[in-house]
Amino acid sequence: MEAFFRSDGILVVGLSTKKEFMTATVPEPAFNDSHWHCIQISLMTARRPFGHNQLAVFVDGAQKLSASVKFPTMSEVLLPRAL
After folding, report:
1. Where are the alpha helices (DSSP H) in the chain?
2. I need a surface site. Which of 17, 40, 41, 61 has the fewest CB within 10 A?
3. In 3-state terms, what secondary structure has residue 51?
4. From CA 76, how far away is CA 59, in angstroms rounded?
5. Where are the domains of the chain?
6. What is the pLDDT along the chain (83 residues), one digit of tens a residue?
7. Burial zone of 59 (CB within 10 Å; 0-12 exposed, 13-18 middle, 19+ buried)
8. Is the separation of the CB atoms in 66 and 76 below 8 Å?
9. What does pTM read for this prediction?
10. What are all long-range contacts of 15-23, with beta carbons under 8 Å and residues at least 24 apart?
């Protein structure tokens, strides 16, 4: 997962697996207003098998984005190897 700001101040959250790269854009507010903001990005796994995983973005305590996303499978997750 990565999060970045575009040059116009819009927040973009990206998730990647081995097969695809997905992005979600937070439409408002633009973060080039010279003010401090509190940003929370939350990834929640599905509670049931074959359910949808959820991405949520909160800005200053208010939810600004909620989206269903795919998570990488366990075989796609890179685990550190013992030396």
Report:
1. none
2. 61
3. coil
4. 30
5. 2-69
6. 899 999 888 999 988 877 888 888 998 877 888 889 999 999 888 777 767 788 899 999 999 998 887 665 555 455 555 54
7. middle
8. no
9. 0.72
10. 15/43, 15/55, 15/69, 15/70, 15/71, 16/72, 17/70, 17/71, 17/72, 17/73, 17/76, 18/72, 18/76, 20/70, 22/69, 22/70
